[in-house]
What does this fold into?
Amino acid sequence: MSSLLAVKLDGLETTYLAVVILLGVAVFAAIIAQIIVVFGYWRGNRKQNSLGITGGEYARQILDKNGLYDVKVEKCGLLRTFLYGNHYSIAKKTVYLRMYTINKTSITSVVIAAQKAAIAQQCKEGDIKTLTRGKLQGLGIFGPILFVPLVVLGFVIDIFLFKTLLFSLIGAGVGLLFIAFGFVATLLNYSVEKEAAARARELLAQDLTEAEMVTVKRILRSYLIEYLLQFIIAILRIIELILKIFIRLRDR
It folds into this structure.
């Protein structure tokens, strides 16, 4: 019985090690994908689009064509550029584009503008996945960051005020809830962005040349690969967390 238990315990640790290795591989692949995306953007930014319009103008054109007159197109501020990059904000009803996207007349600029305008269109149509992802998007970034401060705050309140573990547990619970919401947002990213990319490709095919569409498809493909790897990383991280909890419970 003890030998069988040892095998099971070894199996749990082996599974955890395998997940950690896969996570490392996925993170490395994501870094490579990010480099490919940046290179693809750079190449596309060197080519002027045949429409002769900027990304901001093209986004406005698409939004107006679909009756989204109340959706604004604005340049990202420094903080938005750092945290979100090019994106659509449900709360602000605004397509935010980076400076080199909103002002340039390159192929890359109209590709990104079309894709983000497509997300605004999906929101207008009431797509549940897009709306949910949009509302939880902030937690995808801030959820993991807030976890430790919330736990520490609860711990400090318990130590200096109430001499219990109640607020420590509450802080940990709220922090885990934020992480869970952020995890859901990450899981929805790929599906939402894939649908928006397909819409953008259809829109762009009506306006650009066949030669330009080769670059368009390359940019969107590399973009989606990056989101797919983020999805895989999110899955592996949650599996790693669950296995770590099991191992710690076992060792008590």
